[in-house]
Amino acid sequence: MTDRAVSVAVNYVLTLTIATLLLSGLAVSAGGLIETQSEEAIRSELDVLGQQLAANIESADRLATVAKGNTAEVRIESALPTRVAGTGYTIDVAGDTIVLRTTDPVVSVSVQFTVSDGTAVETERTVRGGNVLIERNGDDRLVVESA
After folding, report:
1. In this predicted model, which residue has the larger pLDDT, 34 or 105?
2. In Å, what is the CA distance from 133 to each residue of 12, 16, 23, 54?
3. Dihedral sign (CA 15, 16, 19, 24)
4. Is the pTM of the predicted complex or chain greater than 0.70?
5. Strand pairing of 90-94 and 87-88?
């Protein structure tokens, strides 16, 4: 008769153990899904911001081409958010490519743009996300910097 009391207790412990393992497995798999979705959201936002910045660089290039020979300055301020999906990002411009990066999670997006021949576009140093200034001060060089 005493065997019945033990089997109920063992059955209860086994049920709790199996339920705990199942719930842990669900939590781990859901965590991976959330991380993947977060990276995709960041990638999409960075792509949109890169396209916006590329359009502003191309506009600054067109204005600089029209003002060529004049001493007129070209300055375009691009209002970008300081964070994407809750994390900060950086902007680098070299040649005809804008590279936007986050560090946590690590996501990198490259966006191409087109400028007239002889115009160089660059960042003097890595620019943090936020308001960005695209400027030409008389030479055939557009500089992208923090505003």
Report:
1. 105
2. 66, 60, 50, 12
3. negative
4. yes
5. unpaired
Contact 73, 60 (CB under 8 A): no
pLDDT, tens only, 38-76: 889 999 999 999 999 999 999 988 888 887 766 668 899
Domain ranges of the chain: 2-146
Distance CA 90, CA 100 (A): 6
**pLDDT over 60 at 6, yes or no:** yes
> pLDDT tens digits for 19-32?
999 988 888 877 77
Contact 138, 130 (CB under 8 A): no
Q: Are strands 120-123 and 141-146 parallel, antiparallel or unpaired?
A: parallel
User: CA torsion sign, 126 to 131 to 137 to 140?
Assistant: positive
Peptide bond into 105 cis (omega under 30): yes
Q: Are 58 and 74 in contact (CB under 8 A)?
A: no
Quick one: pLDDT at residue 95?
82
